Amino acid sequence: MPLWTRLLRWYDKNGRDLPWRKTRDPYRILVSEIMLQQTQVSRGLIFYERWLRQFPSWNKVAIATNSQVIHAWAGLGYNRRALMLRDIARQVVADPSLRGLSSTKQSRDKGSIRFARNDMEDAWIKLKGVGPYTAAAIATFAFHERTIPIDTNIRRVLGRLLFGTTYPQPAIDDKIRANVDHVLPKRGRFFDVPQAIFDLATTHCAKVPTCATCPMRTVCPAAAKFLSGRVRVPKQMVKKAVESRHRDKRFPDRIYRGRILRLVRENGSVALDEIGQAVDVGYDATVDHDWIVAMVGRMEKDGMLSYSDNRVTLPINV
Length: 318
Ligand code: SF4
Prior knowledge:
two-stranded antiparallel sheet; 17 helices; mainly alpha; 318 residues; binds iron/sulfur cluster; Endonuclease III, domain 1; Arc Repressor Mutant, subunit A; Endonuclease Iii, domain 2; three-stranded antiparallel β-sheet
């Protein structure tokens, strides 16, 4: 039985019921993809509906200011994603072919639009802010192009299932792509296979997998290795990603940047000199002032804040 048949049979009974799986609207799919970067699905679900109420279409978000999208993203973290989503929308609005609305490469066939092989993946990857994973995800989930979006979950599951590699690294991606015919059917529901793999990655094939109960264990060359109990998580994967942190501060800078943004968002305008004490109980102006100034400067450069006359605000009319 082909790999995809096993995966899809399991998925049909066990797959998660998620709103972005019930649409082929590239906008909604992009919103979900960007929100789910660094955000758990349960949390993403709440923000997904909220965002779509405020920005239901490409056009609505494309005309939003930095301040508006930052307000709408409040609580999700990694706020640059909000600006990135808006900036991608502006590029899509400028080129309707990215929405599948018109393109010299498309031909109409009985009312539906047909694409040449992976046209959309090729077009989307050229956009600023869109990487190979997102381009492939939009191409397959929205436009039903036959391609594999490879993120850490897909890499982990397919590296194990195809090659028996217990902890696959990004260098394996080309090998995975070269084996597309072992993963996706030529026709039919190839676009559901990655969704099945996402769910398998969550339920069984996690960093430390539960092979004993996995529906793929009889065909997976990594299962015996894990079941032997001799596989250890590689040290480089146990170590937490190194995030920049100022001297002996309790949290990485990312947390303090989030606090600064929240402070400014909630107060409208804050004096630069008041920020340190407001976001850090251990603030000491003699050694922390420059650190706060540098974070504000970086956020200003990223388009998240404005600074003038010693006051920090959200950007206006950008
Ligand atoms: S058998 Fe184990 S390693 Fe293979 S796919 Fe299932 S959980 Fe992953």
